[in-house]
Amino acid sequence: MSRLSLNNERALKLVFVPGSICVALFVLLVFNPASSGIFPPCPFHRLTGLYCPGCGSLRAVHQLLHGNLSSAFRLNPLLVLFLILLAFWFTFCGVLAVRKRPLPMGTIPSYGIWLILLIIVLFWILRNITHHPFAMLAP
Amino acid sequence: MYCRKCGIQNDDNAFKCVECGEILQPIQQAGVPLPSVPNYLVQSILVTLFCCVPFGIVSIVYAAQVNGKLAGGDYAGAVETSNKAKTWCWVSFGIGLGWIVIWLIFGLLGGMSSRY
Predict the structure, then answer these.
(1) Calpha distance A14→B2 (Å, rounded)
(2) DSSP structure class, residue A131
(3) Nearest by CB to B48, which of A38, A53, A58?
């Protein structure tokens, strides 16, 4: 495959996706989801009254963009942990790419993914418990 | 090379058809390493955390199966499951995006009606 042939999927990945992410981040930087009405409430929370694993993620990103790591962590600890891991992973891959080493793609074993799923589901359940240590997980 | 399913022209080395996703290469070629199969794990987790709908979880389940099948040598199965993971990521993303659009439209209408 020649490197210059841009098919639709590549064009989407190279231009549209980073562009949309930048726009979304800019909107999140300027508007605080906790006070401005332009962001929709979580549909799951709206329907059931329960928190989903993603509740608080937009508010957390707003706090992150303003450098408030601890506020972000209180709103959605799982999201902040995941973003930190993601940042490390991309830095790691970037360093490997610069050194022209092969990228360790697809090497995460499936039990690792089941573990991630278990953590998300546990987080989902625990943050809905209104008792003391778990209530801290709620946004 | 032309796709045998939809007839669109593809790169000679393309693994999947750019139009319909049909697998173009013979599944097992001796000596030629098979291209890696994406499991969409990162995308799945992101849509789970940002789109607030349980479909992201479905996607993560498929992501786990992709790597399980790859480890077990079931390459065709892994490709199929990878496509399912991708589909559920998009479903989740689409619903999340649709929810935002609906919210904005209703907010705009609400804002206009309160002005009059």
Answers:
(1) 25
(2) S
(3) A53
Residue that has been written with the tokens 């957390």 in this structure: A60
> What would you measure as the largest C-alpha separation in chain A, in angstroms?
58
Helix axes A110-126, B55-71, angle to 10 degrees: 160
Nearest to B52 among A55, A105, A114 (CB): A55
What does B36-79 look like in DSSP terms, one character per residue? PPP--HHHHHHHHHHH-STHHHHHHHHHHHHHHHHHTT-HHHHH
End-to-end CA distance of chain A: 47
Q: What is the DSSP letter of A12?
A: I
pTM, entire model: 0.72
Residue among A11, A89, A125, A94 at smallest CA distance from B41: A89
Chain-chain contact of B67 with A106 (C-beta, under 8 angstroms): yes
Name the percent of chain B in helix, strand, coil, to the closest 5.
60, 5, 35
Cβ atoms within 10 A of the Cβ of A136, count? 10
- DSSP, collapsed to helix, strand or coil, labels residue B98 as helix
CA distance A83 to chain B (A): 9
In this complex, the residue of A43, A53, A113 whose CB is nearest that of residue B41 is A113
> What is the interface pTM, i.e. ipTM, of the complex?
0.77
Question: Quick check: B45 and A116 CB within 8 A?
Answer: yes
Least confident of A44-48, B25-29, B108-112: B25-29
Q: Which residue has the tokens 């278990």?
A: A118
For the stretch A95-135, pLDDT in tens is: 988 888 877 655 677 888 889 899 999 999 999 988 878 77
